[in-house]
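We were asked to recover a plausible sequence for a given structure. The inputs and outputs are reproduced exactly as logged, with field labels preserved.

PROBLEM: sequence recovery
POSITIONS: 156
GIVEN STRUCTURE:
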């Protein structure tokens, strides 16, 4: 087995925080989900770490992603005990809802055809590919799953 996985020449590498990407989770594209309004997928995702509705609301009202991150990483606020199990589901729900509300996001995703989508984070081995490209790339997998679902719905 080689030290690094083979490089996929056709893959699309991106950052989930690159606001030039249609599916950036930090771009302001308001949507409603779980009886609340969210400015970005990042607002939704970070707020869902907590069970406390008041704290979720506080996160939803943040003006900047920096403020969202600061509140979400607060050590004194207990996180949901099931967070590790549900975090990919939460991200999927937020991104899928945005695709339903923003046709340009859906179009951009469909324009990627069947190419592999890779979140190119050097440091994140869960959401991204990591420095050595051995990461789990959950963000890319979620986008590819949403793309497949959208296509399936269009065929029906």
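RECOVERED SEQUENCE:
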């Amino acid at each position: 087995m080689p030290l690094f996985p083979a490089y996929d020449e056709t893959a699309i590498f991106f950052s989930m925080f690159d606001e030039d990407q249609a599916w950036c989770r930090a771009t302001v594209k308001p949507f409603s989900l779980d009886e609340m309004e969210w400015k970005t997928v990042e607002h939704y995702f970070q707020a869902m770490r907590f069970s406390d509705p008041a704290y979720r609301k506080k996160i939803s009202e943040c003006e900047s992603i920096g403020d969202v991150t600061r509140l979400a990483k607060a050590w004194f606020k207990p996180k949901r005990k099931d967070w590790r199990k549900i975090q990919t589901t939460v991200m999927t729900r937020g991104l899928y809802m945005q695709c339903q509300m923003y046709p340009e996001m859906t179009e951009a995703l469909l324009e990627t055809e069947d190419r592999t989508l890779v979140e190119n984070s050097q440091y994140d081995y869960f959401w991204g590919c990591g420095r050595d490209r051995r990461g789990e790339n959950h963000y890319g997998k979620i986008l590819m799953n949403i793309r497949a679902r959208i296509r399936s719905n269009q065929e029906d």
